[in-house]
Amino acid sequence: MAKLSLNMDEYLPLRDVVFHALRRAILTGELVPGERLMEIHLAQQLGVSRTPVREAIHKLELEGLVSMIPRKGAMVAEISEHGLRDVLEVRRALDAFCAELACERMNDREKERLKEAYEAFAKATETKDTTVIAKADVDFHDIIINSTGNERLISTINNLAEQIYRYRFEYLKDESIHKGLIAEHKMLMDAIFSKNIEEAKRAASTHIDNQEKSILSQIHFKD
Amino acid sequence: MAKLSLNMDEYLPLRDVVFHALRRAILTGELVPGERLMEIHLAQQLGVSRTPVREAIHKLELEGLVSMIPRKGAMVAEISEHGLRDVLEVRRALDAFCAELACERMNDREKERLKEAYEAFAKATETKDTTVIAKADVDFHDIIINSTGNERLISTINNLAEQIYRYRFEYLKDESIHKGLIAEHKMLMDAIFSKNIEEAKRAASTHIDNQEKSILSQIHFKD
DNA sequence: ATATAGTACATTGTATACAATACACAGCAT
DNA sequence: ATGCTGTGTATTGTATACAATGTACTATAT
Questions:
Q1: Which of A70-84, A112-126, B82-96 shows the lowest per-residue confidence on average (mean pLDDT)?
Q2: Residue A106 lies in a domain
Q3: Which of B5, B103, B170, B197 is 20 to 30 A away from residue B96, measured at CA?
Q4: In chain A, positions 60-79, which contact chain B (CB-CB < 8 Å)?
Q5: How far is the CA of A51 from the C1' of D7 (A)?
Q6: How many whole angstroms separate alpha carbon A209 and alpha carbon B116?
């Protein structure tokens, strides 16, 4: 017999609640790179004890958003220009691979949704709202990535994407590039639809190249 | 349950000591997939409190060697045949990419060391000692991976490699494949030396293909 | 015999207490 | 002034106490 599924409001361990709160704060720039993360302070601020805060910070460290020094503490991770290039180099390879797999594996339902997402992104650029644009862009790429059906590939790419989320947000603010992005999305999408693997890989690769150029021209690093 | 011991020689936070101890136990098969990891039990066995054990287990979860269910506990992660295929599919793509970068970036000193590692592996196969063979194989591939100079790529590949370490160990026991492995190493190495990118990518890819075939033919999964 | 409720126990989740360490700064000797 | 040393404080590292929850088992009713 079916239990009255009163939404036993998905129970989340406090450590996960804290983790998501801190993660969001870092990705949105509320906590800036280099800022120290002190357990007691955060715990009081969030109204919990040190334990879940500690566990959340450790989780963020493994994700690469926080760097720790033993017996010294944790701080929001800074990314160097070199680190950014490294991340994007791996992403370029994996995105191209995704594009290849998508050519072979994307089903009709996903193709339909990809087309919708493509149009939604084009429309989003008209709003001039960076948050909306960023979300539409993520949606578009997520459909391609998820169509590979490879969970490990999906989580690996998502981790890499997270590393540069803060910087990607900046470059999306530049309206002059939106037109180019839409064109690149179209190239990639059409290549996938026509199962043209080489073209799809090239389109995915170019997409990251341009991202890299834009980010590097806008952000200037300390080192 | 196996006996666990800590190596306290060098000073490391206890959580890291415990982490390494558990990690080693999992990778060597001392702790088998599906085995539950209970904090109190492990803490007593290792002579520490629950806190560092908890933190070590969480770290292992993020690495993918342990799977956790909230309020239920942790167990040594089992990998399904599907999961194994996923891991190897990503590795194939990244290893091929490494091979490409190695063609462009490997310096003379690294080439020398690669040649030495190649010969050391050939020699290691004569010992019939799987541990020695596995180490020589890792050494060979590490030189290639490290020659890319991309830290993010290196850590990503190492994480993937860790997922299948237990199974790779099994397939290395089969002496009949050693000759083939040596030949594959030579193909890859020569392609890198002659900067033949396409050939290097193909060799790296083939190497993973054969690994996959061997592992899947030897291990049989529950699901 | 089966199903249900209830209860005891094992285990994790969270909070707090205590220990160890790093850092800053003051005081002193040179 | 400079450098050393000691002391206090802030912060992390570890241990333990307490709360919440899931699981197995028992007793009971049907």
A1: A70-84
A2: yes
A3: B170
A4: 62-63, 70-71
A5: 30
A6: 37
